[in-house]
Amino acid sequence: MGKDARGLTWFWSNNCFVPDEGWGNQSSRKTVEAAANARNLTNPVVTLGIGIALTALVVFWSIGVRDATAAGVKILDRCDPATFNAGGTVLCDPTFDGGVTLEEFSELLTPSAFGHPAWRFNAPYLEIDPKEKVRVTNRGGEGHTFTEVSAPEGESPFGGGRIEALNTALELTPLEICQDATKAPLIPPGDSVQIKGLSEGTHYFQCCIHPWMHAIIDVESEDKEHKHH
Fold this sequence. Notes:
By secondary structure, this protein is of the alpha+beta class. 14% of the residues lie in helices and 23% in strands. The protein is globular, with a radius of gyration of 17 Å.
């Protein structure tokens, strides 16, 4: 666990960041010492809180969930084309080699499970230097967004996306920015975007399709960069 620039303590839990102040109600918690010392993330200490359900599943799908040495962020999912596209709408790339059926995916659309952990950002936490760029690449079979979100101090920046059924299942209030496709553009499978020009401080990102997918990028100060040299 660690504190961000606003002094909030965040936990990595069930594929999303949850502040220690009580936001979220996930039953199975995976704590990553993310914001405390990002320079140690190449060999992080990961502690697993034993949940009443899903713990083994979270661990299985979260292998490699953090990787601060990566050149960017990978968007991951494991959609099974046969079942995800069975309704006639192409939700998952027909050529994608997924492994999670729509039924398995749907079983975890509850407030306590908070979404399937195979749908995630890798790495969920990055610390970068000023003016450094971050490449975000969709390696999954579904379309996703990597949308910066914010909130007043003391409030969680994360919320619901633009898929009403998912918001209802997860009991999330949709974020206004997620409803605007021009501000939260879709990244199709195989595509990538470049994040640049982030100001000093902590920045929060989520997928506006699958709103349990969260990431935090901390931008160091110019003064700290000069001290490194």
